[in-house]
Design a protein that fits this description.
Elements (H helix, E strand, L loop, with lengths): L45 E2 L5 E2 L1 H8 L14 H9 L6 H7 L1 E6 L7 E3 L2 E3 L1 H17 L7 E6 L5 H6 L5 E2 L7 H4 L3 E2 L8 E7 L16 E5 L3 H15 L6 E5 L5 H9 L5 E5 H10 L4 E12 L4 E2 L4 H14 L4 H10 L5 H5 L2 H20 L4 H12 L19 H5 L11 H19 L7 H14 L1 H13 L7 H12 L3 H35 L5
Parallel strand pairs: 3-6, 3-7, 10-11
Antiparallel strand pairs: 1-2, 4-5, 8-14, 9-12, 9-13
Helix pairs in contact: 4-10, 13-14, 13-16, 14-20, 16-17, 17-18, 17-20, 18-19
């Protein structure tokens, strides 16, 4: 019987983690990267004959030395170690001890599991390290340790990969449901009390005390989320009762729950939904959030690690570990608080002095964005990321103004805009340089207009030749070289470090925020126009 697991689809994936990013640097013989950054740490990735990529250096980082992945006396070559990790195998914990490694499947997501300059980070990584220590202490293995290897996959490949033996555990925030329990076994819940999907409101939301009060309210969720499906069921009930429906707004899939809560906090959207424990945590960070725990789409949910059916030995180890490390234990709380942090720049972007600068500079970005056929809101978002739209900003490397351009870049024949110490020439030069990067390096007919700009943003930060090399490697690894999010940014996170991924994804978040501001201003102008015409409310 043929396998349902797609052999040619890459396992390694990344969400554009709005806290993650990538270090910038200037490539030799290329137009300069604009920002300054730390020296990149080089890492390695590889693809097995089946087309299943594994970040070999991440495996080595989690397993100690490459030779330790092999049985005693085996050839410690990297290829053999990689093939052993990627070879399908479906035994229980005793076989994992004999093999001396245990594979944990996860997803690449903010705070959960990510690479920082080639080093693994995040809550999932910390728990995996704790699990490795736990099982080795119980086994009393000494130097012949059993290693826990983290393998990131796209979320929709987690279950088939586990069932077919490409991993031994799933650690990715899976909710225990009857449908999943029919396919896999779950350990004891990682949460110390049942979880609910609760409403989170901001300063612009009306008073809401029950689900039915959401009638006519705009709620921002991802189309792929369980929240959206629950809201559609609510809308069916509201329609049957003759009431207005919830205005479901589909957020870009690259935004996580935390990003949507940050936008609600900033007043961009009235409401969204999140898991209750995450909502409570972020309400302590974002002062404009209110968690409405009495308004829940689903209640009584549990999250746990998953494993193949009929793995009683592994289940016993997982349950013993979870009792000491779950949320609510001292170790669990320390790990969570280490990674759940935010700079809260988005709220500043749409309020106060930063918002006033946005309003004052909007027309200039609209003018030059139109001249070079680029989205003025994306360019505004870039300016905010570079300088907080502050023309007086100067970098230690000599970058100047709103767009943080080097004078040498502005004077290059491909830009040729003098006087970038002045506001308008600075914006003009930055937009023209972005247009040059997009047209020269990222004008592939198969690439969407948005991706052309996203790649140009990456090149503005890290240099076009470096980004071109990332695209070549992405294609070699089975990733799509014409898409940034979830594809080429995977390679960028491994090859460069942190800054460029965060640079692009933060700009995209500001872009979504500015787009919502524009939509609101347009709606307000329409209402005022109708009122002046005497047509309001008609």
């Amino acid at each position: 019987m043929s396998s349902s697991f797609p052999r040619t689809t890459p396992l390694l994936s990344i969400l554009p983690a709005l806290w993650l990013a990538v270090a910038c640097g200037e490539g030799a013989g290329e137009p300069p990267a604009i920002g300054s950054g730390e020296t990149a740490t080089k890492s390695s990735g590889a693809i097995t004959p089946e087309g299943l990529p594994v970040d070999l250096e991440a495996v080595e980082a989690s397993a100690g030395h490459p030779a330790e992945l092999m049985p005693d006396g085996a050839d410690p070559g990297l290829t053999e170690g990689r093939e052993r990790v990627n070879t399908p195998w479906t035994g229980d914990f005793d076989g994992m001890v004999e093999r001396r490694f245990l594979r944990v499947l996860t997803v690449y997501r903010p705070g959960g599991y990510y690479l920082d300059a080639g080093q693994e980070r995040g809550v999932t990584y910390e728990l995996a390290r704790q699990f490795e220590e736990f099982i080795n202490q119980r086994l009393n293995r000494g130097h012949l340790r059993v290693h826990v290897v983290l393998l990131p996959l796209p979320r929709d490949q987690l279950l088939p990969a586990l069932i077919e033996g490409y991993g031994d555990l799933i650690s990715a925030g899976l909710r225990i449901t009857p449908e999943l329990e029919a396919r896999v076994d779950f350990g004891m819940p990682l949460n110390n009390r049942p979880i609910s999907e609760v409403l989170v409101t901001g300063p612009s939301a009306p008073e809401i005390t029950r689900l039915e009060d959401l009638a006519g309210v705009k709620v921002q969720v991802r189309a792929s989320s369980s929240y959206r499906r629950s809201l559609e069921r609510l809308n069916q009930r509201l329609a049957e009762a003759g009431r207005a429906q919830v205005r479901i707004a589909h957020a870009p899939e690259v935004l996580e729950d935390i990003d949507l809560m940050e936008m609600v906090d900033a007043g961009l959207f009235p409401a969204t939904f999140a898991l209750d424990w995450e909502a409570r945590f972020w309400a302590g960070q974002f002062t404009g959030l209110t968690v409405r725990e009495e308004v829940a789409l689903q209640e009584g949910l549990d999250i746990a690690w998953a494993m193949r059916e009929d793995s009683p030995l592994l289940l016993a180890e997982v349950n013993a570990f979870t009792r000491e490390h779950r949320q609510g234990t001292l170790i669990g709380n320390v790990i969570l608080n280490r990674y759940l942090k935010s700079d809260q720049w988005l709220k500043s972007a749409v309020q106060g002095a930063d918002y006033e600068r946005y309003q004052s500079l909007r027309d200039l970005f609209l003018q030059y964005g139109g001249q070079y056929e680029m989205d003025h809101l994306l360019l505004l978002a870039q300016g905010y990321q570079e300088s907080r739209l502050d023309q007086d900003k100067r970098s230690p490397a000599g970058a100047v103004g709103v767009m943080q351009l080097l004078p040498s870049t502005a004077s290059d024949r491909n830009v040729g805009i003098p006087d970038i110490h002045q506001l308008e020439p600075n914006i003009h030069a930055g937009v023209k340089y972005m247009s040059f990067l997009r047209a020269r390096y990222f004008n592939d007919p198969d690439m969407s207009e948005l991706n052309k700009t996203l790649f140009a943003l990456a090149a503005y930060n890290a240099g076009p030749a470096r980004v071109a090399r990332l695209r070549v490697e992405a294609a070699e690894r089975g990733l799509d070289p014409d898409r940034w999010f979830n594809q080429v940014e995977v390679v960028a996170a491994q090859r460069i470090g942190r800054e460029t991924v965060q640079y692009v994804s933060s700009i995209f978040k500001y872009f979504v925020a500015y787009r919502e501001l524009e939509s609101r201003m347009s709606d307000q102008a329409e209402i005022k126009g109708r009122a002046s015409d005497g047509t309001a409310g008609g």
